[in-house]
Amino acid sequence: MFTRRNFLQTSAAVAAVGLAAPALAQGTRVKLGYVSPQTGPLSAFSAADKFMVDKFLAAAPGLGLDVEVIVKDSQSNPNRAAEVAKELVSRDEVNLLLVASTPETTNPVCSVGEAEEIPVISTVAPWQPWFIGQQGNPQDPASWQGFDYAYHFFWGLEDAIAVFLGMWNSADTNKAVGALWPNDADGNAWASPVGMPPALAEAGFKLTDPGRYQNLTDDFSAQINAFKQSGADILVGIPIPPDFTTFWTQAKQQGLNPKIVTMAKALLFPESVQALGPLGHNLTSEVWWTPNHPFKSSLTGESSAQLAAGFEAAAKRQWTQPVGFVHAMFEVAADAIKRAEDPTDGDALAKAVAATKLDSIVGRIEFGRDNVPEFARANVSKTPLVGGQWRRKDDGNFDLVIVENAQAPEIPRGGDLELLG
Amino acid sequence: MTQISNLTQSRSFSFALIALLAVVMALLPFFAPRAVVQDLFMILALTVLALNWNMLAGFAGLVSVGQQAFVGIGAYTAFAGVILYGLDPLTGVLIAGIVAMVLSIPVAFFTFRLNGAYFAIATWVVADILRLAFSQWKAVGGGTGTSLPKGTTKDMLGVQAIKDALDVSSAAAADTMLYWLVLALALVTLVASYMFLRSRMGLGLQAIRDNVNAARSVGVDPLRLKALVFLLTAFGTGICGALIFLQLGRITPNSAFAVTDWTAFVIFIVVIGGIGTLPGPIIGAVVFYILKRLLSDYGSVYLIVLGLIGIAIMLFARRGLWGMLKERTGFDLLPLSHRPPAAVQTTKEGALT
């Protein structure tokens, strides 16, 4: 993205070393630095980046904003994410950092923003791995500290658990659940005492957890056997997409036939489900955003459906869930820049971000609400979450149908949960 | 005789040049923008890793693909010291080097039974075992990883003084502090490598690399020398790892034990710069960093280009960029060659006099 431009900027910066004079005054241009995984295993999250940046830049003058966006690729590598965030701060002298997609990207960038005293707007990672994952000792809640510059909007594990339980309770099963949780930020958060095990026990489900596995494993026989022995009707997990493809293919080969398979992260993108072919039919997943969400953009006034249609026309591919969230991230940025006393001052801008009260394309974004535990409340705003099921059409494409909306009744349901054949 | 005086001259010239460069670089934070300081930090850190790997592969003949083990150990030791025991990060850095060195003893014990490609694979295996083991250490985040607690680098020894002296933000002052540390580490590594290689032990080491049996026959103990180099490079690599991750501020097992970042790129640096020379890794690190800055926005094309450059240099400039330069100009920095012993006189009968 913007490679030629970045190249020119880099060369110019190298040429102009020593001439950098930070003349900060009101009315000057506000620089935004955006870090996302455009290449590597997480690149599906960034499909909408270019489209959204262009849209934001086109809408900005109409809102009276003079902005510039510098996009950097994390290459799906946490080291690289921290490095480019530092570059954005020291070389490009950005006033605001934006970051999206998985704790592996958001956490390093937020740590840099916090250390450099530059505000960060972060999204697309459940808030527990985002907040707790950035604490020095995640096991000691007494040592947890809030952030002064990092702000995050997304849903939390408690929402995903409620959605999943809602789906599972709507069907007739033996209430035995098998869990596929990797040893990464997301997997550890789901498997922890603030995650799924206590909630399942309370709701009367029996959990089989064969333990954390390493990402990019190529043999899931141990897990499959454990699930077979416990007779699990329901499978849950948060594998990365290639791991789920491996797992699910092997599970079918070895005769594991659950009634419901609900996977977070792995089933977000139409491409990953299509890769499974007929095996992808009726798999379920959490849904953060669809073109049917009844919200409007505060930047362009478009509805969810219009935004998705615009993306599909421009990118010539099916809409994905991050489309809405990347757009919302720019909505929050524009709104905060407008309200800040001096948007080029880190503290003033952070104050404006903290005071966000915005109806965005992904729902209301407001920090400090009581649906988030007190320790994280100031930095986290939750957005609504529903449950969806992938339905294979005759032409081999898949539709995502919303089958569970108890947590957010304003989002319409498209059908009932169907069991796997 | 001219060759001898050339060597001596070249030697004093090298020392003068390095001293001058060191002074200029030490003074840099006083006038250069922060971005330059950060760039140089990474270049110096890569130089230290490359000098260490070059000692192993270029001089001791130990082609290790597992140096990320010591980067990771160093980094995790420093983080654990800060997070769990409340140490000053600088104390943590020193302990990081010691822990890495202590750990290299059992590693050497097992891997030294193997040679060549088998040794390379064994070191990689060790590094991956460590990566998996650290993924289980919950107190520093397990597979999730962890961040330095807020304000750690600001409270680091000396940062407040730099902040006042240079009138900069505390984040910039911490950058400066870490930059000076890595500069010192790079200088110490370079000078220590030079002195070691010029010593009796260094000569023995290069003899082992070229032919183990011949070296043994003249009384060089290969195992002792190789183990010594392995331990010392583990110390340097561990300290460097701790500094790198203090600068990044966040650690995960996959980033700390990354084979691409801390070994594959380092091998690339040494190969393009010139393996088995001291200036080679320095030049390689600078060239690599420039390539990275120019190309990394092009996504995966960047790695393909790096690979092609590596192959081209291996095919057409086997001694690396420095070797090529030396051949073309006859100019050498930090020459390691010794004065040849006086020619042995033989009588007509062939007996030694």
UniProtKB/TrEMBL annotation, chain A:
<dbReference type="InterPro" id="IPR028081">
    <property type="entry name" value="Leu-bd"/>
</dbReference>
<dbReference type="InterPro" id="IPR028082">
    <property type="entry name" value="Peripla_BP_I"/>
</dbReference>
<keyword id="KW-0029">Amino-acid transport</keyword>
<feature type="domain" description="Leucine-binding protein">
    <location>
        <begin position="30"/>
        <end position="371"/>
    </location>
</feature>
<protein>
    <submittedName>
        <fullName>Branched-chain amino acid transport system substrate-binding protein</fullName>
    </submittedName>
</protein>
<dbReference type="InterPro" id="IPR019546">
    <property type="entry name" value="TAT_signal_bac_arc"/>
</dbReference>
<keyword id="KW-0813">Transport</keyword>
<keyword id="KW-0732">Signal</keyword>
<comment type="similarity">
    <text>Belongs to the leucine-binding protein family.</text>
</comment>
<dbReference type="Pfam" id="PF13458">
    <property type="entry name" value="Peripla_BP_6"/>
</dbReference>
<feature type="signal peptide">
    <location>
        <begin position="1"/>
        <end position="25"/>
    </location>
</feature>
<dbReference type="GO" id="GO:0006865">
    <property type="term" value="P:amino acid transport"/>
</dbReference>
<dbReference type="InterPro" id="IPR006311">
    <property type="entry name" value="TAT_signal"/>
</dbReference>
<dbReference type="InterPro" id="IPR051010">
    <property type="entry name" value="BCAA_transport"/>
</dbReference>
From TrEMBL, chain B:
<keyword id="KW-0812">Transmembrane</keyword>
<keyword id="KW-0472">Membrane</keyword>
<feature type="transmembrane region" description="Helical">
    <location>
        <begin position="298"/>
        <end position="317"/>
    </location>
</feature>
<feature type="transmembrane region" description="Helical">
    <location>
        <begin position="225"/>
        <end position="245"/>
    </location>
</feature>
<dbReference type="GO" id="GO:0005886">
    <property type="term" value="C:plasma membrane"/>
</dbReference>
<feature type="transmembrane region" description="Helical">
    <location>
        <begin position="43"/>
        <end position="62"/>
    </location>
</feature>
<keyword id="KW-1133">Transmembrane helix</keyword>
<feature type="transmembrane region" description="Helical">
    <location>
        <begin position="265"/>
        <end position="291"/>
    </location>
</feature>
<feature type="transmembrane region" description="Helical">
    <location>
        <begin position="177"/>
        <end position="197"/>
    </location>
</feature>
<feature type="transmembrane region" description="Helical">
    <location>
        <begin position="93"/>
        <end position="110"/>
    </location>
</feature>
<dbReference type="GO" id="GO:0015658">
    <property type="term" value="F:branched-chain amino acid transmembrane transporter activity"/>
</dbReference>
<feature type="transmembrane region" description="Helical">
    <location>
        <begin position="12"/>
        <end position="31"/>
    </location>
</feature>
<feature type="transmembrane region" description="Helical">
    <location>
        <begin position="69"/>
        <end position="87"/>
    </location>
</feature>
<dbReference type="InterPro" id="IPR001851">
    <property type="entry name" value="ABC_transp_permease"/>
</dbReference>
<protein>
    <submittedName>
        <fullName>Branched-chain amino acid transport system permease protein</fullName>
    </submittedName>
</protein>
<dbReference type="Pfam" id="PF02653">
    <property type="entry name" value="BPD_transp_2"/>
</dbReference>
<dbReference type="InterPro" id="IPR043428">
    <property type="entry name" value="LivM-like"/>
</dbReference>
<keyword id="KW-1003">Cell membrane</keyword>
